[in-house]
Predict the 3D structure of the following.
Amino acid sequence: MTGKLKTLFDNKQMIILDGAMGTMLQQNGLKMGELPEKLNLDRPEWLIDIHKQYIAAGSDIIYTNTFGANRLKLKRCGYTVEETVRAAVKNARAAAEDTGTLVALDIGPIGQMLEPTGTLSFEEAYDIIREQVVAGSEADLIVFETMSDLYELKAGVLAAKENSDLPIICTLTFESNLRTFTGTSISSSALTLESLGIDAIGVNCSLGPKELYPIVEEMSKWTNLPLVVKPNAGLPDPVTNEYDCSPEEFTELMKAFIPLGVKFLGGCCGTAPEYIRQVSEMSAGALYQPQHNDIPAAVCCATNTVVIDQPRIIGERINPTGKKRFKEALLAGDIDYILSQAIEQTDAGADILDVNVGLPSIDEKAMMIRAVKELQGVVDVPLQIDSTIPEVLEAALRIYNGKPIVNSVNGEEKSLNTVLPLVKKYGASVVGLTLDENGIPKKAEERFAIAQRILDRALVIDIRKEDVYIDCLTLTASAEQENVYETVKAVEMVKTRLGLRTVLGVSNISFGLPNRELVNCNFLQMALTKGLDLPIMNPNIGSMTGAVRAYKLLMNIDVNSVDFISHYSGQEDKPKPAAGEKVTMDLPSAVASGLKAECRSITKELLKTTEPMEIVNTMLIPALDKAGAEFEKGKLFLPQLIQTASASQVCFEVIKEHILATGEKTVSKGKIILATVKGDIHDIGKNIVKVLLENYGYDVLDLGRDVDCQLVVDEAIKNEVPLVGLSALMTTTLGSMETTVKLLKEQYPECKIMVGGAVVTPDYAEQIGADYYANDAKESVDIARRVFGN
Amino acid sequence: MEKRKININKAEVIRFLGYREKRPGKDVMSIIDECENALQEVMMPAFTFRILGLRHKYEGIDVMGTDLTLEGNDIARHLSGCDRCALMAATVSVGADRLIKSYEAQDMTKALVADAVASAAVEALCDDAVTEISNRTRSFLTWRYSPGYGDLSLDIQPVLLDILNAQRQVGITLGENNIMIPRKSVTAIIGLSNRSLDLGRQSCEKSCKNCRMRYKCAYSEY
């Protein structure tokens, strides 16, 4: 930061921004629904005039008219990003000439939702914003405003930082429930963005100054950056489109923000130069009041912040080490299995999930990116990125939505030099392992010394102390019993002397011993009492999670035992099956009733005496057939059919595990590819088809939704599948279905194609050259049976 | 602006799930309840509307003060006799999309049911919007007509959403193929008139009898 801007940032004066642009342009004659950005070239005089009015009113910084000047929105008007943005900066500069007013490159939301909820990829979002940043290089600073998706904002901040040296201001729009429409919370945005190294943060739009007060108040608790407030002129009337807050009221309410650490004041929708003039006058005598809050140690995803002010459980199950089924899922690219592991752990009580997808035979980087993207779409907890390869860590840190933990750095020079800069750049927290070139030291004091070294090195590059968590390393009691207590001692030393958070993988302690759960549980309790904050453990084991909950109760952290009671009250009343009690139900009726737990236990029991294939053919498939037939007759409805299929899926999962353990032949009846076509994101129908097909013993390679047409062909050829199923729900995406069918027929004519989805008709299927039309999930099974002859 | 609670019509949920005369059993009903509770927790329902004048011309209907011209026979029929319209957008927010996606990874039945509940929720939200439009304008209203119905092109979606400032106001975004995200979102055009409209032809009620898909649709009452 240099020149006037630096002076503005550094001194105690308030900085006045401008007011609304859109409504001013509409007063000049812009029609609603027209792109305001094209006026930069068509009507430069309008813009220069509006900018001048704000400068005359007292604005220190004016925003360029480039809110929607991205390549997607500009498509509608034919101008390029470069010419539009350059013209906009030029107009602002012309207005600001000789006044010393600074020009901010304004960047609003792209207008499309990012994956996985939407279809725009993080990488594409980055590139779209990069183009805007580069075109606006002549501005004095960059402002992201009206942002509601933290993920998009992260792409933007990275694009700005990597393609320009200009200072960055971010303002988001929160609703009165203290969240943005995408669910982003105030704490998550403040923690994530400050860690990414922006220069000021705040809010704009959505509400008036009165309604924004609690939002800014909350934000000031999570950051010490200068705050920015650009409210609407109150709330709009939908009928008259007028805002209800006069310049006088607006200015009076704006005064209240100053003690919260607000340095930048301006206006958004409905405000005009008169608002800015009065705010400017009001704040002329006021001084910026920097905040010095203790920002807690915390990590977050976009929707949920986990403060490390008490023991928090890190789930360890997303890791292939020692797990055959997990390895198989990684090899098959079975992301659903990984997601189910994640949800099981969060349901059991994990606060954070460790993600390790390292397997020698797979592309770990690609898998890590995919896993993180998918996981953050379905779970509401922060992630801990776990890899030994810096390149994998960086790839995951880039696309992570929030503030994650890096697992890990250690005391080796090489590790410190490569990992810590990544932690700093992407604003993460980091686990520091107390080992170095010489291995794991035996004594607590030596491990403490490494912890100290890691901390010092982190501080040198400006990583906050609160973001360094030390792992004093668990050794197995069966091999090094005499050193178990050294670990516990080191935890205490790091906690009390360095004041750092501590983390510890708990489960290794019992390796090679009987009754591991008992040993783990006791070790966990020992460590907790000595100051362990972040146990990495299996949360699905009730006694382990229970130990953490009980610890919090006994330490008066769980005040009034609220959390404990909510988890355990009433549990004793539930009837437990007596030990050794025989399950009397047979498998087909358990499947038909959708009873998953029973299905699991009966299948396990059956596998002791029955061949897997026999279970599938004589019990599961007949049960599904019966349900399918009743569904066709209208006696059974879709929810029940799916319940039956889901129950049968549990049986399949048990059988799969059994096969992996015994090395028996698979039960696959053939491989089928399913995809929801390019451009379409409505995939629930395809997923229902998938469940049903899998339960008839078919291997389904699910390519997901919004799948590139050629990718379907490539995967079909690569996997030699005899049948591909395509779905589309929107009339606008039927074209993609047609293209995919055409490409398949050209390049892989022996493959059969079935199509379905709300807008697809038998006639249309025939017209585009598909082999089969499936009216519902049940019919897709009939088609598969015909194609595979089974 | 308190968080809006939606009164979801259970009968509609049940219809969306494919049930006709028959009612679901207790187990499915309890899944519906569970999904509804979970959805109410994560949804941020919101709607917005604008009242704008109409100019009927041979080539189409201009929505005054905007860049939008409505073309096609069906929208002309829909808005005949109306001098104003309400453009509206409503959404139950991406919270619903996320919950459904998360259910898909653990229990497909719940995903299916939650999808139906969210569909019913956005319909109920639209009904709330219409009630407010009616109260505020004290006019006679047609029913809700959406881009993509009949011969009204879906291509007007970007302009319609821009007029409503829908991303800022309610958080609706539009993908490349004019697909709205959040998925459970609706845009619609409602005709307004000071004189009573011919209700036989265009009732203000949303009903299967007004829909030309009534003999083809899986959810139709016909």
Q: What stands out?
A: The first strand of chain B starts at residue 46 and ends at 56. Residues 66 and 163 of chain B are 7 Å apart (CA to CA).
